[in-house]
Amino acid sequence: MTAIVEYPFLSKAICQSTIESILNQKKHNKYVITREQINLYKKILQLPKDTSLSTSYERHWVKESFKISYIGETVKLIHAKTLKEVCCLEDIYEAFYESHLAIQHGGHTATWKQFSENWSFVKRDLIFALCNKCSTCSNQKVIPKLCSAKPIIAKAFLSRIQVNFFIIIYFFYFNYIIFNFIFFFF
Length: 186
Known about the structure:
The chain is α+β, with helices and mostly antiparallel strands. It has a domain at about 35-85. About 40% of the residues lie in helices and about 20% in strands. The chain contains seven helices and six strands, in the order αααβββααβααββ. It has helices at about 10-25, 35-45, 55-65, 90-100, 110-120, 125-135, 135-140, and strands spanning about 65-70, 75-80, 85, 120, 160-170, 175-185. The protein has a two-stranded antiparallel ribbon. Strands 3-4 form a two-stranded parallel ribbon. The chain has a two-stranded antiparallel sheet with strand order 5-6. α4 (about 90-100) crosses α5 and α5 (about 110-120) crosses α6. It is globular. The protein starts with 11 loop residues before the first helix and ends with a strand.
């Protein structure tokens, strides 16, 4: 039995609750593949003539979508199009941690690219949701500053426009003067 490792920027409980909330929204049994499904798919691929394992539709889908890779004594399920290992629901936490830490909290897109280089059959919005729950990344988010604007009361649509020009003149030792020119067009 392996011990569950908690990582500092995302707890296992938060990760599981995020995944469950997304799975409840999707209501799709193949959105994320569980370990039980992976074991069933391996049996289907190893015993292609056995019709008792699943429905004919599912057996056909498995044969078209996946392959088996033998590495020593271990058998891995590989996605047929990408030739990458399929990440099951129970392994998403560790795989996300490795990918997110490898890019040093670089954001949604970089984490997705790193994750998709090694794993397949995990949807992008699931990785994006886990990135949003990362405590380190949420502290680094840039808050946009509001731009200063003066309201102009117009009599008709696009009848008045105000343009501000700022000229900054630097003097020695970083002293500066700001000249503000305001032009009104009527």
